[in-house]
Design brief:
The complex is a heterodimer of chains A (about 80) and B (about 325).
Chain A lengths: L1 E5 L4 H17 L4 E5 L2 H6 L7 E4 L2 E5 L5 H9 L2
Parallel strand pairs in A: 1-2
Antiparallel strand pairs in A: 1-3, 3-4
Helix pairs in contact in A: 1-3
Chain B lengths: L1 H12 L7 H31 L4 H8 L6 H12 L7 H10 L4 H13 L2 H11 L1 H24 L8 H5 L12 H31 L9 H6 L6 H9 L6 H13 L4 H13 L2 H7 L5 H25 L1
The chains are: A alpha+beta (about 80), B mainly alpha (about 325).
């Protein structure tokens, strides 16, 4: 699956990236992680508050860093 | 009950005597710290849960195509509840403008959001009483409303960077959180926030309790008291470039107040620090042309100065 982290690069974006990687590894899924930092691309997702997490092109969370467990259930829901 | 706790720790465990300077200062410090941290924990947690229902996407829907006055008032109020950190100012600004939120209304939101929040409320309430807390909140909202209305009247839409209007904003359905998730998140948010701000809060309380007795209380009052008409603008000018949240500025506020600076000057300083900052200017420069950026800072700074004079005159 494709995991995208949308954000212009503040501390919260880094934390979300780490949490998402941990979640994906714990689930043992194969994934590809991409950081989207370009504002135009971020806006194209319809996201207004960063950081945001998109899975396979679908925005799942925006404006907060969810706990690893919540990310896991979001990844499983795909 | 908190009084009892402070009694037991100071007099019984530490064996200090009531009436001594150190004993009384420590008693005050323990009592105030416990009280303020309890308040912070409860209120920040409750607000975090409430806040999870106010996503920026929903706020944008509410504010879209709102008229002057009603729009500005709603924006200033929603600014308190909508989670917002200055690092997402750009996507938020574009999202608002794109969906037809008027420019003046957008600015009311941008002013109120960092300045008026639950942390400022609790800290001012705990350290200076509910009257000052309410004063800060209500005038903060007024500054946001007035600045937004003025900017809206100036019709400065063409000073927004052109690409903002060409941007294509996608629509996204955000996954709704369950109530349990909201509680878990609020819990995590509260813990993170407290971890971040506790040193500032303790220093703020400490200044009230200890330093109070050691420097002449009118030290600053002599230079920047009510008699000096330049004190308010100077305090605001110093505060504007500084960047801090409400918790970070509290120790300074506490120190200034205890050294005799009048309340209007201190609140104006606090508003200037939280509402405007150099890093925010850099971020907003990506979406605003220089004229609009300067106008925005100028109008907000002037409104804050007006609030400062008003309080110094009335209180």
């Amino acid at each position: 699956m494709k995991i995208q982290i949308l954000g212009t690069g503040c501390a919260k974006c880094k934390k979300l990236t780490e949490q998402a990687e941990t979640a994906a590894k714990e689930l043992g899924v194969t994934y590809e992680l991409e950081k989207v930092t370009d504002i135009e691309k971020i806006m194209a997702f319809g996201v207004m508050s960063t950081p945001a997490l998109a899975v396979d092109g679908q925005v799942k969370v925006s404006g907060r860093v969810p706990p690893v467990d919540e990310i896991k259930s979001l990844l499983k829901g795909v | 009950m908190l009084q009892r706790l402070a009694d037991v720790i100071t007099w019984r465990f530490l064996g200090l005597q009531p009436g001594t300077h150190l004993g009384d200062a420590l008693h005050f410090f323990i009592y105030d710290s416990v009280k303020i941290f309890l308040l912070l924990t409860v209120i920040v947690f409750v607000i975090a849960v409430v806040r999870s229902y106010f996503s920026p996407e929903r706020t944008r829907q509410i504010l879209s195509h709102r008229r002057e006055y009603v729009g500005n008032l709603l924006a200033a109020l929603l600014g308190i509840l909508t989670p917002f950190c200055s690092c997402s100012a750009v996507p938020l600004f574009i999202g608002f403008v794109e969906s037809g939120v008027p420019l003046g209304v957008t600015f009311s939101f941008l002013v109120s959001s960092p300045m008026v929040n639950e942390v400022a409320l609790v800290l001012l309430w705990g350290l200076f009483g509910w009257k000052i807390a309410m004063l800060y909140i209500s005038t903060g909202i007024s500054v946001a409303i007035v600045s937004g209305i003025v900017i809206g009247r100036l019709k400065m839409e063409r000073y927004v960077e052109d690409y903002v209007y060409q941007m294509k904003v996608g629509s996204s359905a955000i996954h709704e959180q369950s109530f349990r998730d909201r509680i878990v998140c609020a819990n995590e948010y509260t813990t993170d926030l407290l971890k971040k701000i506790w040193p500032y809060v303790l220093v703020g309380i400490g200044i009230g309790g200890f330093i109070h007795g050691y420097a002449p209380a009118d030290l600053l009052a002599r230079y920047a008291g009510k008699g000096n008409p330049f004190a308010v603008p100077v305090a605001v000018l110093i505060g504007v470039p500084l960047y801090s949240n409400a918790a970070g500025v509290i120790p300074i506020v506490q120190a200034l107040m205890s050294k005799g600076l009048p309340i209007g000057t201190v609140l104006a300083f606090m508003m200037a620090v939280t509402a405007l900052s150099f890093p925010e200017a850099v971020i907003l420069k990506k979406v605003l042309k220089l004229q609009l950026l300067l106008t925005f800072f100028g109008i907000v700074a002037l409104s804050i100065i007006a609030v400062g004079y008003l309080f110094n005159a009335v209180l």
